[in-house]
Write a structure and sequence with these properties.
Blueprint: H1 2-28, H2 37-59, H3 64-83, H4 91-111, E1 115-118, E2 122-132, E3 138-144, E4 147-155, H5 159-172, E5 181-186, E6 190-196, E7 200-201, H6 202-210, H7 230-244, H8 259-277, E8 280-281, E9 290-294, E10 299-303, E11 310-311, E12 319-320, H9 335-340, E13 342-343, H10 345-360, H11 373-378, H12 392-401, H13 412-415, H14 424-436, H15 443-456, H16 466-475, H17 485-497, H18 504-510, H19 515-524, H20 528-540, H21 547-550, H22 558-567
Antiparallel strand pairs: 1-2, 2-3, 3-4, 4-6, 5-6, 7-9, 8-11, 9-10, 12-13
Helix pairs in contact: 1-2, 1-3, 1-4, 2-3, 6-7, 8-10, 10-12, 14-17, 14-19, 15-20
Length: 571
């Protein structure tokens, strides 16, 4: 404690002497009239005296007693100036000295609270460390202009990277799914980036919600390696429950992502779309760099850690970085990054595929355990992809995102149109519209019967409650063929379109629209939607009738987006 106080006193003395010296030095540079010459000479003399005292303090390893005598002499110099009339132009500097003295006192008091004041706006809470990164980067809680913030402290030895980071933050933070940037401060050794304070990371969220519900053992070998303890996760889980109630990231009946988790994944993709439109690749996309904020009734995901982003030239949208500072965490890097250090927007898409898999499987990685991931990624050995075979839409999308050939990966702007992100109403609407386009001898009809029937394995009426089949057969003018995909789609269409006219017992069986109704058929025919989607892609991907399922904006260029829907079939 004594050593700490001595260090603090020494620091404050040095700050004070520097302040006095700078003030007097600037004052002496003014040219006053001849009538002021005596005051000028005296001021210059006092300035030179303080300069000598400063040099003595910084050039010697004097004892604390000698240092106190030096500062006392400096104070005498300043007091002698305060007691005598000073030139008009000197008064602002005297005010400046007094203001700095008050600021130094504030700094001194803040040391007792483990706080560090940087400039006039920023206070860093050194005792509230949020996390650590590579090359000395530390993130603290703090306040900026009275607002709670996250403060990212970076070594000035990487100032070139910091300038790039700041530029990217300014360019990219005007989006609800990108962490907001408030400002930047500097001291002698560090740069302090002032960022929006979030509640926890996506990595934290997946872990804390999986503690009591995961069918897999919570093992750091396949979870992203971190230093957080189980107690910390339990505390955060309590905070989350107290704020939002019973948080569910998965449906109970089929263990698929809940609407909340799908919305968080949409947030991630939306933020990535925004960055890519600005010509920025993230280069370090991983669960710990996706932050979560708690709102009144929901959660919101935001992309963070701009420190290793790189603005792309519009003419050449790649960046080669074999030896540059700030490489991404290897477990989430694409093979082309690991092998030759080459980055494109497609490398972000590979990382996105790993993140989606991570969320769906409660923290697993598609390329296996932590120690083997890089080796498996280089050889395209997807160890754990079988874990999502019961979720065909996710299997379909993630397989495309993890393509070893980066040119075959979909773009961020295309991802949200994939069926994995459709809500229940859109899923049912797509099946209904497909049913309406099935003519008896149409090519689409033949392709569906040929492609999808093999996935049914048996007559579809054996998987549907008999009461539903009996009721619909009685209400229909045409009978149903139980080995026909078209008739299964017709059954779903009629149940959905005439839901209000169904008997109460049938409504109870299929559940209310739209979520439970969709769950009823998804649980019985899990691959139906994605197989129908693949076939429709081939025949109507560029058609006006199905445009809203494949193109985000009806006025956008259809041909650029159809590249994905054709590639998505793996042809």
């Amino acid at each position: 404690m004594v050593a700490r106080q001595r260090h603090r006193s020494s620091l404050l003395l040095r700050v004070k002497l520097f302040t006095i010296h700078n003030g007097l030095r600037h004052c002496c540079s003014y040219r006053w009239k001849a009538s002021r010459s005596q005051q000028k000479r005296r001021l210059k003399s006092e300035g030179e005296r303080v300069t000598r005292l400063v040099l003595m303090l910084f050039s010697s390893s004097s004892s604390s007693l000698i240092q106190k005598n030096i500062v006392r002499a400096a104070d005498d110099s300043v007091n002698s100036l305060k007691e005598n009339p000073t030139p008009r132009k000197f008064k602002p500097w005297m005010n400046f000295l007094e203001a700095r003295e008050r600021e130094e006192e504030s700094i001194a008091s803040s040391f007792d609270k483990n706080q560090l004041r940087i400039g006039k706006k920023l206070v860093v809470s050194l005792s509230k460390e949020i996390g650590r990164g590579t090359d000395g980067t530390v993130v603290y809680e703090g306040s900026y202009e009275g607002r709670k913030v996250a403060v990212k402290r970076l070594l000035k030895t990487h100032i070139k990277l910091d300038d790039n980071e700041i530029g990217n933050l300014i360019a990219s933070d005007h989006h609800q799914n990108v962490v907001r940037y408030y400002g930047v401060e500097h001291d002698r050794d560090f740069t302090y980036l002032v960022l929006e304070l979030c509640d926890f990371s996506l990595d934290d969220l997946i872990r804390i919600t999986s503690l009591n519900s995961s069918p897999y053992k919570l093992d750091p070998n396949y979870l992203y390696c971190g230093t957080s303890t189980m107690t910390m996760y339990e505390n955060r889980w309590e905070l989350l429950k107290n704020t939002l109630g019973d948080v569910k990231l998965r449906k109970e009946n089929n263990d698929r992502p809940s609407p909340l988790l799908l919305q968080l994944l949409r947030d991630i993709v939306s933020g990535l779309v925004h960055l890519h439109k600005l010509g920025i690749i993230h280069r370090d996309l991983k669960p710990r760099n996706i932050l979560i904020t708690m709102r009144k009734s929901t959660l919101c995901a935001k992309l963070s850690d701009m420190g290793i982003h790189k603005r792309l030239l519009i003419e050449n949208k790649t960046y080669s970085s074999v030896t540059s500072f700030g490489c991404a965490t290897t477990s989430w890097k694409a093979a082309e990054q690991l092998l030759n250090g080459r980055h494109t927007s497609a490398t972000d898409m590979f990382s996105l595929g790993c993140i989606i898999f991570f969320c769906i499987t409660r923290g697993r990685h598609p390329f296996g355990d932590h120690d083997e991931r890089d080796w498996n990624i280089k050889r395209d050995k997807k160890q754990d992809l079988f874990l999502i075979q019961d979720f065909p839409e996710a299997f379909h999308l993630i397989s495309r995102l993890l393509e070893p050939d980066p040119t075959k990966r979909p773009k961020a702007s295309e991802i949200l149109q994939h069926p994995m992100f459709w809500d229940a109403e859109k899923r049912l609407s797509f099946l209904r519209d497909t049913s309406d386009r099935l003519g008896e001898n149409s090519d689409l009809f033949k392709a569906l019967e040929r492609t999808v029937r093999t996935n049914l394995a048996t007559k579809w009426n054996k998987k549907v409650d008999e009461k539903i089949v009996t009721y619909m057969r009685a209400c229909s003018k045409r009978d149903y063929k139980f080995n026909s995909v078209r008739d299964l789609l017709r059954l779903i269409r009629n149940l959905s379109s005439h839901y209000g006219e169904l008997g109460q017992d049938v409504q109870i069986l299929v559940g209310p629209k739209y979520e439970e109704f969709d769950d009823y058929f998804t649980s019985r025919f899990p691959s139906l939607l994605i197989k129908v989607y693949e076939v429709v892609c081939s025949y109507y991907g560029d058609g006006e009738y199905f445009m809203r399922y494949f193109v985000g904006n009806p006025t956008s260029n259809v041909s650029s987006d159809i590249t994905f829907v054709v590639d998505c079939q793996g042809k």
